[in-house]
Amino acid sequence: MASILDSLLLLLAFVNTICLAHSPTLREIYRFPNGTWVENIAVRPNGNLLVAVLSTAELWEIDPSTPSGPSSARLVHHFDGAEDTDGITELSPDIYAVIASNSVWTIDLRSHESAKPTLIAKLPAGYLNGIATLDEGNAVAITDSQLGRVWRLEIRTGTYDVIHQDETMAANTDMGLLLGVNGLKIVGDYMYYSNTPKRIFCRVRIDTHTGRALGPYEVISNDTMADDFAIGPHGVGYLAGIRDNVIIRVSPNGYHEIIAGSKGSADLMTATSAAFGRTRRDHNILYITTGGETELPVNGTSTRGGKVMALSVEY
């Protein structure tokens, strides 16, 4: 009997070790109410997260260091008259540009946590979506998902023009909506972008002041559906896989792999955007926003709300 008991204890210890070795590195930071679509994310210098809630045209701040609950999130601003909020980019420390219904606003959080945004311009766009900083914060590049182009907007003057329009950015209706170029990031002298229905992740070398192309439009990877994304060390992309409900890691040579989520899982259902932490404690944490636990755009309150998730990433 003793030998059988010892064997059972050894088996249980082995199973427990296996479970610990495969313990999930994905955890929930905050969940919004049912019917809420969270679209984009930026990380403040203090480590807090700014998230754009598309379905309510709001900007929220979330403290990822506190337990999930009402006290860990606060409303920064509601954009009256707007139908949605989309991209966010940091122009300079704690000053941001935010897209709300084809208008671009700036908001300064350096000294006033409840600062009101300033309207920069309303563009004659199809649908403004992703946004990235140019010219040391004096301008931004913005994707137009319906017209399949990238705009450049001067922050001080509000003037704008089209700086990119390529076949890799073109829109189609394969997903039901007219959609093309989507997420956007500028790292070094490369502009990275996704085209969601074409399932491609691309880049182009640019002039970091004008934003205009200095080289060819390159497809880094095919068959990688993505909304927005983060760029990690060594130019590695971490793509929010929207309808595929995953995070995909893409190397500069095009090799890609799923590192979290799955088609049949609700953990990252409708993953929309991602950003790395900025403090010593969370520099290897990828924060991910989702549109909620639904396979369709949120247009009511019958679906579980969008979330902010945290994923430990090994570089």
UniProtKB/TrEMBL annotation:
Residues 1-21 form the signal peptide. InterPro entries: 6-blade_b-propeller_TolB-like, Hetero-Diels-Alderase-like. It comes from the Eukaryota. SUPFAM superfamilies: Calcium-dependent phosphotriesterase (SSF63829). Keywords: Signal. The keyword Cytoplasm does not apply. PANTHER family: NHL REPEAT-CONTAINING PROTEIN-RELATED, SMP-30_GLUCONOLACTONASE_LRE-LIKE REGION DOMAIN-CONTAINING PROTEIN. This is SMP-30/Gluconolactonase/LRE-like region domain-containing protein. It comes from Penicillium coprophilum. Gene3D superfamilies: TolB, C-terminal domain.
